[in-house]
Every structure is written in structure tokens, then in C-alpha cells.
């Protein structure tokens, strides 16, 4: 089946890219509860008749919110989103500990003393801002000798990985209704919000677990960019998917951009060595890290990276037209 996408000149951000008439770009899905991230991607791939599809950061089945899905050639861009910062809204349930540190686990301990002053709670939260050491939960997708930790934990052979540094950039309390505390956290990739909840509960002396989790931002993509699975299915059937498909170039919105002429595009398409001499002189100093090369139609041609101590750029990925 070939998708014929109508060009929308008023929606620059959501313009799709093509290769042999196939869709390539990023779809941001508002993941519903009760489904794995992998199954969401499977549905997206099926509806879009995509050759390839993948997400850039999993959400637990009970969690909801932003799931960034890369379609076809855009899967090459996943590496640029995997380590991006995340923002969540979450609910901490004080006084109840579970083996998984979230509401899906078995209750392991209960404490009825969960009445704390606002100042005490704010002080506890404050201690977890900044760079902190966090123990990954034994129920997680991290692997030990090739086996996911959650499988080892379920078979009564839990493995505790060593603590690692994560960054809690902001941690803001939104509501306090004991035993529940709703909060917002902006953090580095790899931060476990359920572990954060368990640690805050432990610091208050009553324990706690993650009751609800909603991701509202991931690598710069926000919940306002997202579509529900129902909306996505309707858009696909009505052939209006281009309204919400983010082009590969626009998906890399924080990466420096260089508009290439036909000569440079041809050199890239043929794999020639690219040096600083291939760029306009006034642009050279701005391109010290990654750079996205687009043609005059703003279609992504390649992503390059400046080779330190050298006068050239290495190829990260190329999208031949």
C-alpha cells in the first residue's frame, strides 16, 4: 500500500520526508495505561505500513504519556533522543512500600504515620535535587549477564546493580493530600521515578511507592505534540497523518543547521570527505559538534560530527534522496 500525503504548506514542522514514497519522520504518541511501549510501536508500525519503527525510551505498562516513535529512515535518528532529558508528573503514595517500588508490586511494608508538615515534605524533596546517586530497582529492564533484572527478580534471584549518578534538574511539589503527593520532576535519562518515590518515602521514615506516572516531555517533545492511539488510527484512515508527522529535520530542532547547496549535497550523497572548507566561512565556528545538513527544501540530507583536532566532519547518518 502506498501512502499519498498531501503537502500542507502552512505546517512546516510536520512536513514528512520520503524515500521511494515511504513515510519517514517522528510520531509522538500519548501512550495509554495497560500496554507496553513495544506494543504501542507495533500498532504504529502496522497502521503506517512502516518498514521500520522504534521508540526512543520505554515507559512501564502502567505509565502514560510521551512516547517518541521513529518511523522508517528516522530510526537512524534514535541515538540523538535516547539520552535526552525527561519531564514527568507523578504521584507518591506515602506509607506503603512494594517490591517493585510502584503500584503494580506486592506490598512489603505499611506505615500509618504519614502526616507531615508541608515544610518537612518540602525539605525531604529538596534533598533529592541536583546530581544524586540512585540504585536501579531490581525490577527493571537493565540486564545482568544478558538477562533482564525483572526476570531474575521474579524467579527469586534478584540482582542489585550498583548506584549510578542521575540528575534531578527540578523537583516541584504540585499537591499534598496525605498519603498522596503529586509532583513534577525534570531529570536526566536513566532516572527511575519509582526509585525516587521510594527514596523520598524512606527519607521521611514512612516509606512509599510510585502510584501514578505520566511523562509530559522527552528529548524536547512534549505532550502537546502527542496523539492518542485512537487519533493516530483515525488520521491514518483519513490520510491526514502528515498533519502530525514531524519531519526528520524538524525533529532535530536543537541541532545546528546548515542549508547545503547542490554541490555539497552531491558530495555527501557520494560519501566524499567533508571539511570546513565546504561551509561558508562565517558559519564554521558554530559547527563544532553535531550538525544537520538540509537541502534548500529543508529536507534532511545528513547528520555530521566535527572531528576534533581535524579539519573534517565524520558522517553519522546519511539520507540519500
CATH architecture label name of the largest domain: 2-Layer Sandwich
Question: Class of the largest domain in CATH?
Answer: Alpha Beta
Largest sheet: 10 strands, mixed
The share of residues in helices is 10-25%
Radius of gyration (CA) equals 23 Å
| Structural domains: how many | 3
Task: Give the key terms.
321 residues, alpha+beta, Pseudouridine synthase, Archaeosine Trna-guanine Transglycosylase, Chain: A, domain 4, 3 domains, ten-stranded mixed sheet, five-stranded mixed sheet, 7 helices
Commentary on this structure:
This protein has 3 domains: 17-84 and 220-251, Pseudouridine synthase (2-Layer Sandwich), CATH 3.30.2350.10; 86-218, 2-Layer Sandwich (Pseudouridine synthase); 257-318, Roll (Archaeosine Trna-guanine Transglycosylase, Chain: A, domain 4), CATH 2.30.130.10. Helices cover 19% and strands 34% of the residues. It has 7 helices and 19 strands. The protein has helices at 37-48, 118-126, 149-154, 193-204, 229-237, 248-251, 262-269, and strands at 17-19, 22-31, 53-55, 64-71, 86-94, 96-98, 107-110, 130-134, 143-144, 147-148, 164-177, 180-187, 208-218, 221-222, 257-259, 274-275, 290-294, 300-306, 312-318. Strands 1, 2, 3, 4, 5, 8, 11, 12, 13 and 14 form a 10-stranded mixed β-sheet that branches. The chain has a 5-stranded mixed β-sheet with strand order 15-17-18-19-16, covered by helices on one side. It has a two-stranded antiparallel ribbon with strand order 6-7. A hairpin with a 2-residue loop joins strand 1 and strand 2. It is elongated and about 70 Å long.
Amino acid at each position: 500500500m502506498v501512502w499519498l500525503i498531501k503537502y500542507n504548506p502552512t505546517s512546516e514542522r510536520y512536513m514528512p520526508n520520503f524515500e521511494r514514497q515511504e513515510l519517514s519522520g517522528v510520531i509522538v504518541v500519548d501512550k495509554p495505561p495497560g500496554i507496553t511501549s513495544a506494543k504501542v510501536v507495533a500498532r504504529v508500525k502496522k497502521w503506517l505500513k512502516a518498514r521500520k519503527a522504534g521508540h526512543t525510551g520505554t515507559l512501564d505498562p502502567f505509565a502514560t504519556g510521551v512516547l517518541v516513535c521513529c518511523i522508517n529512515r528516522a530510526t537512524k535518528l534514535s541515538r540523538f533522543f535516547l539520552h535526552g532529558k525527561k519531564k514527568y508528573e507523578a504521584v507518591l503514595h506515602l506509607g506503603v512500600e512494594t517490591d517493585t517500588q510502584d503500584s503494580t508490586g506486592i506490598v512489603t511494608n505499611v506505615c500509618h504515620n504519614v502526616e507531615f508538615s508541608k515544610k518537612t515534605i518540602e525539605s525531604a524533596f529538596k534533598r533529592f535535587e541536583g546530581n544524586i546517586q540512585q540504585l536501579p530497582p531490581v525490577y527493571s529492564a537493565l540486564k545482568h549477564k544478558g538477562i533482564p533484572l525483572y526476570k531474575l527478580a521474579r524467579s527469586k534471584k534478584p540482582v542489585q546493580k550498583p548506584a549510578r549518578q542521575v540528575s534531578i534538574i527540578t523537583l516541584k511539589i504540585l499537591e499534598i493530600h496525605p498519603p498522596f503527593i503529586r509532583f513534577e520532576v525534570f531529570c536526566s535519562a536513566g532516572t527511575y521515578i519509582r526509585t525516587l518515590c521510594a527514596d523520598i518515602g524512606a527519607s521521611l521514615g514512612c516509606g512509599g511507592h510510585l502510584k501514578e506516572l505520566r511523562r509530559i516531555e522527552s528529548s524536547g517533545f512534549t505532550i502537546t505534540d502527542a496523539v492518542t492511539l485512537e487519533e493516530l488510527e483515525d488520521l491514518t484512515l483519513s490520510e491526514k497523518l502528515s498533519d502530525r508527522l514531524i519531519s526528520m529535520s524538524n525533529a532535530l530542532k536543537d541541532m545546528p543547521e546548515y542549508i547545503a547547496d547542490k554541490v555539497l549535497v552531491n558530495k555527501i550523497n557520494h560519501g566524499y570527505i567533508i571539511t570546513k572548507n565546504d561551509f561558508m566561512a562565517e558559519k564554521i565556528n558554530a559547527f563544532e559538534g553535531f550538525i544537520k545538513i538540509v537541502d534548500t527544501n529543508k529536507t534532511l540530507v545528513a547528520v555530521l560530527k566535527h572531528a576534533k583536532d581535524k579539519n573534517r566532519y565524520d558522517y553519522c547518518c546519511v539520507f540519500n534522496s
